[in-house]
Each structure stands twice: as structure tokens, then as C-alpha cells.
Design brief:
The chain contains 8 helices and 7 strands. It is an alpha/beta fold and 202 residues long. Strands 4-3-5-6-7 form a 5-stranded mixed sheet. Strands 1-2 form a two-stranded antiparallel sheet. Helix content is 42%, strand content 11%. Helix 1 (5-14) crosses helix 2 and helix 5 (88-97) packs across helix 8.
Length: 202
């Protein structure tokens, strides 16, 4: 028996979530409609509210309800050190370690010519402008240790070669091919502490 059009639409919509296949989406949809309609209403309302009200920080590009996020607005943090990340999830992971007191810049992806993702899609020109304006002493490139992440880090370093700023890369405490989202706090803290420079010291 085929599902009704509205139920099929719900199942199809749930499949947009990462890691959710047809069977999982079907179970989710049936659970919400059969056993927990109140939660379904709350979920729908929360999703709509978030979509309407959550934008991005004008300085670091992370998800934020305010024009400038809480971290960028915090004057007690060291704004001369910028940590460059691929996603807001990576920012949350580093914040949970409690060991970094600088600020961030979120690329929301990595360079991937095969997928049509170039520097303009990652806000790299915005990052370069921010460094060129002065006041930045170090740029920590904490993109994921994947082929694409490494390529993105080296591209950014090359674009800033003319600037008098220390450019470092997080150390290899993070497994190659892994993603920051799945690394434990201790390993990530060690990687941040042992970051290395991408520029030869004169």
C-alpha cells in the first residue's frame, strides 16, 4: 500500500537530513504522526523559527541570531588570533575544549572544484580583507585534515603571503581523513597546542 501524498511528502522531506535514508525517514515520520504529534508541532515550529531568525555573523560567518555573534562581540577574547574553520559545528567542538580564547572565521565548506566550490563561496576574500586591515597577529588554519581541507589551508596561506602575520596549521593530533566534529576534546586540544607554521621562518 502506498503512503498518502502528505505522508510521502514528509518522508521525502526528512531525507534531506544527513545520514537519513528512506527507511529511517519513514520510521521518523510514522513515529511523529502515530505517537508524538505534540513534538512534531514543536519541531515544525522550532525549525520555522530557526530558518526565519538565524542568519550569519557579519564578522566570522558562523550561525547567529544577531548581526555580530556572541564570540565576536566578546571584548575579553583575543581578537588578534583568528582560527579558520570549515563549519559552525567545528567552532562548537573547539569551544567545548575551553582552551582557545581567540576568535573564529567559518568558511562553511572547503575548496572543491569538482563540486563547483571556489574561494568566493567560502568568503576567503572577506577573511583576507580582515587580515589586511591589521590587528591580526596569527591565523590558525584548522580546516579538516582531508585532501580538500589541506588544499584550502594552503590556498589561504598563499593568498596571505604578503601579510606580516603568523600563519599556522593545527598539529596532526587529529587523524588524517577525519573530521573535527568526531574528534574527542583531548585530541583536539593537543592538536591546537601543537599547531605548526605553514611559512618558513626567516
Amino acid at each position: 500500500m502506498a503512503f498518502s501524498p502528505l505522508l510521502q511528502q514528509l518522508i521525502t522531506s526528512l531525507r534531506c537530513l544527513p545520514g537519513v535514508g528512506p527507511k529511517t525517514a519513514q520510521r521518523m515520520a510514522l513515529h511523529l504522526l502515530e505517537r508524538d504529534r505534540d513534538s512534531a508541532r514543536q519541531l515544525a515550529a522550532a525549525m520555522l523559527d530557526a530558518v526565519e531568525r538565524v542568519g550569519e555573523c557579519s564578522r566570522c560567518r558562523t550561525l547567529s541570531e544577531e548581526p555580530v555573534c556572541e564570540i565576536c562581540a566578546d571584548e575579553s577574547r583575543d581578537h588578534s588570533i583568528i582560527c579558520v574553520l570549515e563549519s559552525p559545528v567545528d567552532l562548537m567542538v573547539i569551544e567545548q575544549t575551553g582552551g582557545f580564547q581567540g576568535v573564529y572565521f567559518v568558511l562553511k565548506g572547503h575548496l572543491s572544484p569538482i563540486d563547483g566550490v571556489g574561494p568566493d563561496d567560502l568568503g576567503i576574500s572577506q577573511l583576507i580583507d580582515r587580515v589586511e586591515q591589521g590587528g591580526v597577529s596569527e591565523l590558525i588554519l584548522a580546516t579538516n585534515p582531508t585532501v580538500e581541507g589541506e588544499a584550502t589551508a594552503h590556498y589561504i596561506a598563499a593568498q596571505l603571503n604578503h601579510c606580516d602575520v603568523r600563519i599556522s596549521r593545527i598539529a596532526h593530533g587529529v587523524p588524517v581523513g577525519g573530521e573535527l566534529e568526531y574528534v574527542d576534546g583531548g585530541t583536539l586540544a593537543h592538536a591546537m597546542a601543537g599547531r605548526r607554521s605553514l611559512r618558513s621562518e626567516s
